[in-house]
Every structure is written in C-alpha cells, then in structure tokens.
Automatic annotation (TrEMBL):
Residues 14-139 form the Polysaccharide biosynthesis domain. This is Polysaccharide biosynthesis domain-containing protein. GO terms for cellular component: cytoplasm. InterPro entries: PBDC1-like_dom_sf, PBDC1_metazoa/fungi, Polysacc_synth_dom. It comes from Smittium simulii.
Length: 143
C-alpha cells in the first residue's frame, strides 16, 4: 500500500532531519580533524577492534579514494557490507544511521566529495584513515 500524502510529507521531513544531522556530524568531525593530530583521535571505545575487523573483511578497500559504485553500491559490495554491518547492531549506538564520509581523504567535505553511508561504515573508513595516516594533513596547530 502506498503512503498517503501526509505520510509522504512526514517521510520527507524525517529525511531532511537525517540529512541535517549527518551534515552537522560531518562539520564536527572536520573540526576535530583540524584541532587534534590524527593519531590522538579516537572515535569509539572499540576503534582497534573495528579497525582489525574492517581490514580483515576489506583488506584491499582503497580508503584514500573511495569508489562509491564498486565498493558500496555493487550487488557484491552491498551483500558484503550488509553481513559486516549486522555484527555491530548490539555494539555501536546508531550503527545504521546515515553519515557522510569524504570520498577523497585529502579533501574536506563538499557536495562532490561526500557520500552517504551507514555510521558503522563511516567509523570503519575514518578509523582506518586515522590509523593509516590519511587524515594527518588536516591538523592545524595553533601558534
């Protein structure tokens, strides 16, 4: 059964709220990258476990430059991510909420350099970027 017009408007409002929350999260995260050396940033209490699990399951995923179609939207990638993500349901709060991740790790968030992913995917990619040195260039020490 199709949603009513009132329900559709409500869905659009919810999507807009999610988009605003994801953008706010991205802005805060970029601020953190600029405020602290990457090696000193911890995103969860499970960073090391998430990193090891991610790199075990996705050892060749190019986190420097993400390929949205190949690495996230192909049928094979969707299945692999779906199985991976399910493991974190009881461990990461809001593991399946939407987040923005930068496609090219050398650049800040922009419309062209962002894609929508699940929170656990964001955590996997950004924890790996922190550990593998891809976020080192953003830190701006105060004089």
């Amino acid at each position: 059964m199709l949603p009513t017009a009132e329900e559709t408007a409500n869905l659009q409002e919810i999507e807009m709220q999610w988009a605003v929350k994801a953008m706010t999260h991205a802005e805060v995260y970029m601020g953190i990258l600029k405020a602290k050396p990457a090696k000193n940033i911890k995103l969860t209490q499970m960073d090391e476990d998430i990193y090891v699990d991610f790199r075990t399951e996705f050892p060749t995923l190019n986190i420097k430059n993400l390929n949205e179609l190949e690495d996230f939207k192909s049928e094979a990638a969707k299945k692999k991510w779906r199985d991976f993500v399910a493991k974190y349901e009881n461990y990461i709060t809001d593991y399946n909420f939407g987040s923005l991740v930068r496609i090219n790790s050398d650049e800040e968030y922009t419309e062209k350099n962002s894609m929508f992913v699940l929170r656990i995917q964001f955590l996997c990619i950004e924890i790996a970027r922190l550990k593998e040195g891809y976020n080192n260039g953003f830190y701006e020490p105060s004089n």
